[in-house]
Amino acid sequence: MKTIKICKQCNKEFKVGKYRKDRALFCSMDCYNKFRLKRITIRICKYCGKEFRKKKISVEKGRGKYCSKICLREDKKRIETACKYCGKIMLVKPNTLKHNKGKYCSRSCTNKARKEFSTYRGKNNPLWQKRVNCICQWCGKTFKREKWYVKKGHGKYCSMDCMYNGEVRGKNAYNWKGGHSYEPYSREFKKLRYPVRIRDNFTCQICKEGENGRHHCVHHIDYNKDNNKLNNLVTLCLKCHLRTNYNREDWNKYFNNKKG
Fold it and tell me: Between the CA of residue 41 and those of 8, 9, 36, 213, 231, what are the distances in Å?
């Protein structure tokens, strides 16, 4: 049985066999060629100046500049030029020379030329921004920083050491609790550490890891070093013990619920 289809070019009806019903779009080769010519444009070769045909889709994508691969290779052949700093002969594409590039043979030559000619140095640099005088909040030294850096709230300290002393260390630290960590542990606590670890089978009570070449820590649940009752002591590994220094109220509730 033959199926009736409509030609894509002339809109005429034509009959096709069952094996060609999905592929057949045109009634004849003339209609196919006419439809194909609609999608093709005439271009001029960039190198030799010849006229050639190219699909509109490929031209829209930025292709169709050359009539053949030979013209493309000939146009993109590298030219011999000398480095402006060291005089070394090098091969450069003609397009790079058109865009005022390809002056130097290497990165080191470009950097040396910039330092000598001082075109990009200091205030001549296009990225140059005026610096503002700042006073260090810790040591009182005067130093310079960019305007945008100061506007964002930075530029308080002259170095990382001053920043550490000013914001991270001692009373200025965000986690400061009055210096309780510097207080010494009592003798009673030192005697109770080993029995507490035996009671907890030498395992951490949070992550359940055993001792592996290092003794576990013994932690005060209420963070009071003088309260050395066995109910207030628990075995923790070093990682978990460090975690309990933050969100102390939550950890206190966690251990108290575990007891109950």
Answer: 20, 18, 10, 79, 89
Q: pLDDT 10s per residue in the chain (260 long)?
A: 788 888 888 888 888 887 787 788 888 888 888 887 778 888 898 888 889 888 888 888 888 888 888 888 887 788 888 998 899 998 888 778 878 888 889 989 988 887 776 666 666 666 677 788 999 988 999 998 888 888 888 888 999 888 888 777 777 776 676 766 667 888 898 899 999 999 999 999 999 999 988 899 999 998 888 889 999 999 999 999 999 988 888 998 998 888 76
| CATH number for the domain running over 131-172 | 3.30.60
Torsion of CA 108, 109, 111, 112, to 10 degrees: 110
Vertex 81: Cα angle to 76 and 83 (nearest 5): 130
Instruction: Cite the beta strand spans of the chain per DSSP E.
Output: 3-6, 13-16, 40-44, 51-55, 79-82, 89-92, 131-135, 142-146, 217-220, 233-236
3-state secondary structure of 237: coil
Domain boundaries, the chain: 3-38, 40-73, 79-122, 131-172, 184-259
CA angle, residues 77, 83, 85, in degrees to nearest 5: 165
- Helix/strand/coil percent split, the chain, to 5: 35, 20, 45
This model's pTM is above 0.90:
no
